[in-house]
Structure formats: C-alpha cells, structure tokens
Amino acid sequence: MNLLIVDTLPQDSEETGAALAALTAAVPEHKIVRTAEMEIRPCIGCNACWLQTPGICALKDDYEQLLRDYLQYDAVVFLAGTALGFVDHRMKNVIDRILPLVTMYTCFQNGQMRHVPRYEKFFRFGLLYEGEADGDYLNLWMERVVLNMGGVSMGAFPMGKAREVLSCIL
Fold first, then answer.
1. Is the whole-model pTM more than 0.85?
2. What is the C-alpha to C-alpha distance for residues 159 and 157, in angstroms, rounded to an integer?
3. pLDDT digit of tens for each residue in the chain (170 aa)?
C-alpha cells in the first residue's frame, strides 16, 4: 500500500502537522505534494483534455505531475482548508483539474450517468479538512467526485481525525 498526500494548505498548522505525522507513520511508502509550492492554474473549461489531447491538460503548469501521481498511488488523501462551509478555492481548483483522468464519454451505472474512466485504475480518495464545514456535505461531495471517476471515497474528516481516514486506507 502506498499513499499520496496532496496538501493544499498554504502552511501547516499544529493540527495539520499531527495529521501528516499520523499518515506518514502508518503508511511508510508515501509521497507528500504541497500545492502551495506549485503553479496550478484554474481549469478554463476548454475540454482539450477530452477532445484534442486526450488525457493531457492544455494548461502547462505543475498539475501534470499530480495527474501522473494519481495513477501511481493506491490511495490519495487531500488536506484542505475550508471557506463558507465547503472546501476552499485551492482544494476546489485541484479537483476541477482532475478531468483528464476520465473521458468525455458517459454511460449509465446503477441508474446514474457517469464518465467512462480513461485508465484501468480504481481511485481511492479521502479528505481531511481544516476549519468549519458541513462534514456530511463534504462526505457526499467526495463520494460523488470519486464515484464519477469509477472509484471509492474514503470519506471526509476534520483534520484532527486523521486516524479515521487511516482506517479506510489500511
């Protein structure tokens, strides 16, 4: 089991440091990506990743490495801040740019329309958030994001409950 940790927070708080320590101690084979140190521009909705350059985003920035990392790791845990009860703009930007991992084609699965995955990869994503948010809503959101990619959500938990997401990984 290997773990990709995508830290979207601008700086680590004490609580975030404790969560990172718990995650890295439990999963020795891991990689931490700090998006604050990267140039990740917002998705412009051009659909080039679907139509012109399948699987490759038209924006040339540091996000391309993240797309490769998603494919190489068994599980991904996002560390995010919150705003207005939801994930903040940094986390939302990271998720918006995930589109090249699926195709533009859709099909019905269990009575719902879903994108056809581009790769034979079963995604497992989880979220640890810092700040005030509606945990039930974030759980549902994370579930829907990963379901649309043909994967499974490990849930959304407040930063202080890193052990909860670990129980889904191990």
1. yes
2. 6
3. 899 999 999 987 898 999 999 999 999 999 999 999 999 999 999 999 888 988 889 999 999 999 999 999 999 999 999 999 999 999 999 999 998 999 989 988 888 888 888 999 999 999 999 999 999 999 999 999 998 888 999 999 999 998 888 887 76
Q: Which amino acid would we find at residue 76?
A: V
CATH architecture of the domain 3-169 equals: 3-Layer(aba) Sandwich (3.40)
Instruction: Give the domain ranges of the chain.
Output: 3-169
Q: Which residue blocks in the chain are alpha helix, DSSP H?
A: 14-26, 48-51, 63-72, 89-96, 135-147, 162-169
